[in-house]
Amino acid sequence: MELFKSLRVKPWLSAELEQQTELNSSTPDIEKSASTALKFLLAVITVVFFLFTITFLQRTQSFDFQALSGEVWLPFSNTNMLWQNSAYLLLASMSIILAEKFAQQQNLYAIIISLTATTLFTLLFISGQVQVWQQLNQSGFYITTNPANSYYFLLTGIHALHIVGGVLVLMRCTWHFGISFSYQQLASRLNLCARYWHYLLFIWLFLFFLLTSDASTFKTIALICGF
Amino acid sequence: MTKIEYVAIADQVDQSNHPSTFLTKYIWSQDHKVIAIQYSITAIAVGLVALVLSGIMRLQLGFPNEFSFIDPASYLQFVTMHGMIMVIYLLTALLLGGFGNYLIPLMIGARDMVFPYLNMLSYWTYLLSVFVLLASFFVSGGPTGAGWTLYPPQAILSGTPGAHAGILLMLTSLAIFIVAFTMGGLNYVTTILQARTRGMTLMRMPLTVWGIFVATILGLLAFPALLVSAIMMIFDKVVGTSFFMPAILSLGETLDHSGGSPILFQHLFWFFGHPEVYIVALPAFGMVSDVIAIHARKNIFGYRMMVWAIIAIGGLSFVVWAHHMYVSGMNPYFGFFFATTTLIIAIPTALKVYNWLLTLWRGNIHLTMPMLFAIGFIFTFTHGGLTGLMLGNVVIDLPLSDTFFVVAHFHMVMGVSPIMVLFAAIYHWFPLLTGRFLDNKLGKFHFWGTFLGTYAIYLPMHYLGFLGVPRRYYAMGDTDFIPESAQTLNAGITVSAIIVGLVQFIFIANVIWSTFKGKKSGRNPWQATSLEWQTADFPPGHGNWGEQLPQVYRWAYDFSVPKVKDDFIPQNLPSEEVEYLTSERNNDRGKK
Amino acid sequence: MTIAFVIILLVIATLVFHFISPWWFTPLASNWQTIDNTINLSLWVVGAVFVVVSLFLAFVIIKFRHNKNRRADYEPENNKLEGWLTLVTTLGVAAMLAPGLVVWGQFISVPENSKIVEVVGQQWHWSYRLPGKDGKLGKTAIKLISEENPFGIDVNDINGADDLLVKSNELHLLIEQPVKVLLRSKDVLHNFAVPQFRVKMDLVPGTVTFVWFIPTKLGRYELLCEELCGIAHFTMRGYIKVVSASDYQTWLTSLPTFTQTLARDTANIAQGKQLYTGCVSCHGIDGQGNEAMNAPKLMGLSRWYLHRQLSYFKRKIRGQNSDDLYGQQMSAMSALLPDDKAIADVSAYLSSLTAIESIPVSTGDAIKGKAFYKNCSYCHGEHAQGNYAMNAPKLAGQYPWYLKRQISSFQQGIRGAHPADLYGKQMILMSKTLHDERAINDVVSYINSLTNVR
Description:
The structure holds three protein chains of three kinds.
Chain A: H1 2-7, H2 14-21, H3 30-60, H4 80-105, H5 108-138, H6 147-180, H7 183-211, H8 215-225
Helix pairs in contact in A: 3-6, 3-7, 4-5, 4-7, 5-6, 6-7
Chain B: H1 2-9, H2 22-27, H3 32-62, H4 72-108, H5 116-135, H6 165-194, H7 207-239, E1 249-250, E2 253-254, H8 262-295, H9 303-316, H10 334-360, H11 369-392, H12 394-400, H13 404-434, H14 440-467, H15 485-517
Helix pairs in contact in B: 3-4, 3-5, 3-15, 4-6, 4-7, 4-8, 4-13, 5-6, 6-7, 7-8, 7-9, 8-10, 8-11, 8-13, 9-10, 10-11, 11-13, 11-14, 13-14, 14-15
Chain C: H1 2-20, H2 33-63, H3 79-108, E1 115-122, E2 125-130, E3 164-166, E4 170-174, E5 179-185, E6 190-193, E7 200-203, E8 209-213, E9 219-225, E10 237-243, H4 245-254, H5 258-262, H6 269-276, H7 280-283, H8 303-314, H9 325-333, H10 340-352, H11 366-380, H12 400-411, H13 424-431, H14 437-449
Parallel strand pairs in C: 1-5, 4-10
Antiparallel strand pairs in C: 1-2, 2-3, 5-8, 6-7, 6-9, 9-10
Helix pairs in contact in C: 1-2, 2-3, 6-10, 8-9, 8-10, 11-14, 12-13, 12-14
């Protein structure tokens, strides 16, 4: 609404100008900028996963689609492994919030411990995902055998790549912290990382639900979406 | 790096951080102006490759069976590479990476982009994508010949040239380009949202910034579709999945695919591809608005409407994509929806044309080089836009789709028009880069050659389309429905195309000559109001502004304000300092 | 100032070009007059807008060109004017869109009484299938496609048994009969486009699309593929012949049903050997050919190719051109084969012989020839072994002098130009990619070098 209002201003009239001049009086602030950039980045990632999802949902209705759960012999009728991975990612997301808190309190040891925990849980998540892939391969669910398998490997792979990217950024943050020892800077950066991790956790839970649904769920979704 | 980030956007410039060596100043530079020039030079260089490719294609079409180095395979490869390079690696990179980078910080009063390091990374990633793309000329099988639309299944099957290494390099290069664009794009939007100087409200931004801003958002949201389709196609090719591949034969051999949908790729591609048209067009709209206003010494007519139109066009561009697919075999009922949205998008676009004309109306038009190109743009864009109205109307697309009419239309609207603006912009902002004008005589030659030459290419080309000559045909051969004379027409088009191609080298020569020997322009030679001309140093140095960031007091279009002495008031001039005329020579009928 | 006059001149030139241009739509031969009407309507609207806007532009440039003593107006906006302009534009757009949508509505609703025809596209040929008496087409699948069953029809589907197959690039349609064309592709995207009918639609592998029209004018129209489908896209041509009721019946009765095509293989090699004795004087005892007699090597060529060429000679499709001396000879000699059965027998016999490799003769630069051959390899195969699916004969092992003569015959339209020669036109177009004698020598030299590979 605020935006619409500002878009209706007549910029050539000085009366209307005055109200707005104050809006932008401060010099740019790197925290705010980074936060804005992160919002746009998440929007971009959302579009990527959204488009994958749309193509996936369309594909679920093709004749050769075999959902990965629903029957006992299908791999994701038992999702324990995936729940375990989800737990790792959840723990990683939580520990990164802790790290941010500790950074604000300037508690160096606690920061080290919580960031180690974050990295560890994140890596556990990725290795857990790799294990699931191996299990799928061992039980004959290869990437090419079925579109559902293809999408499983593709989507979890892309998601894992995003996580790896996050870890790299996190490492860069700690590296800079190691040089500058600026707690304030670390806290603000960890805040951004935490948002990224939460977002990827959310994406993962969404993918979890999507990829392990059974045929009848897909049918319902497809009906709602009008495929 | 961090330190530099903080410094670059702070109010005060830390002198110790100025890059000093040649390497940091011109190669690994984080200065947006240097990066912009790097982007521009790379884009123009690769664009020249594409220009030469188009010349070769035209030789084949104009004089079939005369040139032995063009065979059907290489013809398709040239078509493909010409299209892809021009659309993505030239236009997108030059308009956003080049002009966006150069103008955004200067026009909104920032010292640099908010993430200069990311900005530098964006350029080097872009350069990498260009190298990967060009590498495909040297691999076995050559570059892909699938057409710039890269439709599967043929893009990855053996019946198409470059279906192995070529297509993979193309897709990889696109993916890298998208990463580069995303890094740059995040920078542009964040800079515009967060780094505007005091008093620079959104509605005081020049339309150039608006165009680049909305185009960047479009790019950020549309390029993922291309990324997604590129990734899935790479999987289909390398791993053997069936995302886009149904059960299928390839040159008589049955392949292992099943169930995939080629139309799905087309939806993804055009979900990117249509906004891409506006990623190119919107910055061009913005820049041409500013050029017209400045050189007609008049405020842009209907500024608010222009901003809203940019936003509306940007939004609508996401719901018109399937007008590229009327005859693709998609659900035929989509035709109703997409024809309607497509024709609706014509309304804000038409308004923009009216407003440009109304800006000229009662202006004081200086026919400078930038203005000539801007007028050329209005003419070609009107022409191209109107034929677009025809093609968008679903039934008219039935006979004309996939013919030269389509080729002529999109070259008119997406090739010639944006390039007219690019030239207008280069002639307009060249003094800002170098402190010198581009040579006027050579410029005139360049303008007339380009303007008349391109019209001589594309007007007749529409008529080949009416005849029914299909596009992407290596040779037409003898057909009943195409008269012999069409070949004469084709030859004429080729001659014009060669002339236009050669004229561009005059332009390159002009740029090189004028950089060193051109006429000195002095400060703010066009007497423009926007901030980029009001910097402390001229041309602007590192950090753009001197000690203090500028303060903005007005919009960018205070030209010929009644009762004011000069016919322009810079944005950063406080109201108290505006000099008024003592005598009441001017009437103020225009004042609201 | 010049620019304003140039714009005025360009507008005039555009109008003149439009009205005197001989390049316009080819005359309509279907029911889609409505499409033409929509185009004309739109063209008038956009043409008028183009003229008005451009002339206004020129006028403004002249009227408000720079003048030291005048100042530009200051007018930020004018809501009323912009409102009016929006309204007028909207009305103009609606006026163009509405008829378009109505016609599109017609385009997507197929009339009840339309007959079904299936058009099958493949790289880079057309073929057609018509339902038999039952009016239904049999099911098909890609994996069923084979040399015996090129349409991939399901043998177990009762509807498919009486399907009429047109393994030719020419389809006949009955005049004034609404026809729903089902479009199916075996490999990549193609597009069914006949400029005279105005409508077109893509063929998409994995799904069946359709287009409908009523042919209204007798004639033979060229069918083009208008969706890029690979290297030989530009040679993917077919014909649609619109015929009268009686001609249509004659044509229908000449078509084999699916069952008939399956049962056809009755060729007798022994009889073929007998019949071949009439040919030995030129082609040699084992069909090894003889340069002195200008007779090509026949042993080991594929049956389907020999069959096709022999019947061309016999049906006076090949060897009729006055410049084709040896073709004329062969056409005369083909009288020795009384009927189709005899042709089948001889073809079967010749293809049963194992080809003896001849010693390669260098005619040109084989390395350069390899680059030229790349374009041929898509159909004729990497080793010039031929490919039934592409209707491309084997070239490896054939005499260089024969290949050279055939290539230049194709180039000059001596061979392949007859309307009934199915794939000749394709070769005419492709052979023209070899621009001179040297190129022909080079490519032949390369093909010749392949003899050793296999």
